[in-house]
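Hey team,

Filing this mostly as a record. A colleague (T.K.) asked me to run one chain through the structure pipeline before their review meeting, and I want the input and output archived in the tracker in case anyone asks later how it was produced. No errors, nothing strange. Just documentation.

Input sequence:
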Amino acid sequence: MECLLLACLLFVWAEGLSAADAGVSGKGAMRTPEVDAIDPFLSTPATGALYEIPVMIINYIPTKDGTNVDSAILGKSTIEDFKKKLLLFNKRAKFMLEEGSRYHGYHDSKARPSLGYRIVHIVTAYEIMPPGKRAGGKDKPEFFPDYIQILNRFNAGDWVTNHNVKEIWLWGYHTAGIVPVESNMSSPTTGDISNSHRDNKDLPIYDRTFVLYNYNSMRSQNEAVHDHGHQLEAILSHVNQHQDHNTELFWDKFCGRQNGKFKQGRCGNTHCPPNAKADYDYQNVTLAESDCEDWTPDRSGKLKEVNAKTWGDTSYAWPEGTAPSGKIESHYYIYWMQNMPGFENKIRLGDRRMNNWWEFTADWDRAIRGGLGLYK
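Output structure:
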């Protein structure tokens, strides 16, 4: 009962923080929201990218004194140091997503990235996240963040409609009764096609599609890009279902699945590398044959033994010149994405040819309304 009362009080307090000028100030907060400067790396899309992805970033950093983060929620740190950590995570996530869109980039240094990310706006709120719908929890009630309140407060509609923002990266936390989603789509074209609970009423619907990623600032770039991996699975399997009335091409033949369960030897998925014995088996050094580097639907491509060293030992020009902790997992996500049919792939499906699957991330509305499929 006490937890429920606390959650209700937090909700009332968060409601009171919504300012009449839609996000310029927060009533009662120890520090009012700030529009942050954007690092040049974040504001510059990857060189040669086919498509640009404008991004809005919203940070929630609770504080009791305006100088230090609330240690009960985010651990002991100054706000300044915490924002430096988020900056590094954003740089790494941007790099991984761009690098991942380079078809076979792990062995083709000239491979052109399909996606170029441009962060166009960053705002930081120094408050708790406003709770929205009940997410569960028997002993201690848990709530999803109130995404509609958050996006309305910080004028997300203007950024999506007038600045073509396609993604919103929301840095929050999974504690204090708050349960973040991984990916959440709002679309006037298809409705909510996302990895997390699909609810067409939990986000504002604007004149074009956008995807909100609710990152956990107590984790790392790996978990952030992991969210993108699951969103890719959601949209590509949706397209496959629409085109073929099943998801065999994506889940069974690309990822590797048999009778609904992961099967070694294809390209893997967000949880399972090609040689995985279980979920999250990114560091498995056991060799397994896979056609991931020469993938074709009919498995006519060259087989190769792969393991964690296959992706873990690849050299990348990481931002600030330093590979992150958890490098092998980071490299796996890049490797997995680089094996998706991308720009100038020549993969055949009988007398058909694979499209560039990154077009669905680049412009969902155009791709869907234009009847684009996984192959043509």
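Quick notes for T.K.: Residues 1-26 have pLDDT under 50 and may be disordered. The first helix runs from residue 2 to 17.
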